[in-house]
Specification:
This protein is mainly beta. The chain has one domain: Lipocalin, CATH 2.40.128. Helices cover about 15% and strands about 45% of the residues. It has two helices and nine strands. Strands 1, 2, 3, 4, 5, 6, 7, 8 and 9 form a nine-stranded antiparallel sheet that branches.
Length: about 150
Amino acid sequence: MKYLVLSLFLTISLGCSTSNKLEKPESSIVSKEFSNEVRTKLLGKWCGTKKHDDGLLQQWNVERHEDGSYRVDFSTTASDGSQENWSEFGMWGVRYPIYFTAVQGFSGENGPYRANTKDPDLYDAYTIIEIEEEHFTYKSFTSGNTFTLHRKCN
């Protein structure tokens, strides 16, 4: 269960662009074209890393597709060296400044399985803080946690 909650908060990714930073429209009404530009930046492969106070290292790699599907591969390494790996998959979208995900299933040692999509914990919304060519920062409405993903993964 702790990994389900963790995966819900870590879901994310971004795409390439010719400019370094998107300039937010000055109008309080955001155009469909601007949301589409942000969506294009979210496409592709991205990664994140977080080290916890207890020594747990979390890493995740995200790939977002043009058809609205995504997959996140998670890996955790405990301070004793033990590792756990799993994945989640689902649908994603953006309507600036909101980024959202809907988990449809998971994959682990026993292969892929469908999620209970009636579970409200499988749906997340985030506010987009910053999108640049090499990183994406967003904040969870549910947990208040802020995440940054990078285009270049180790």
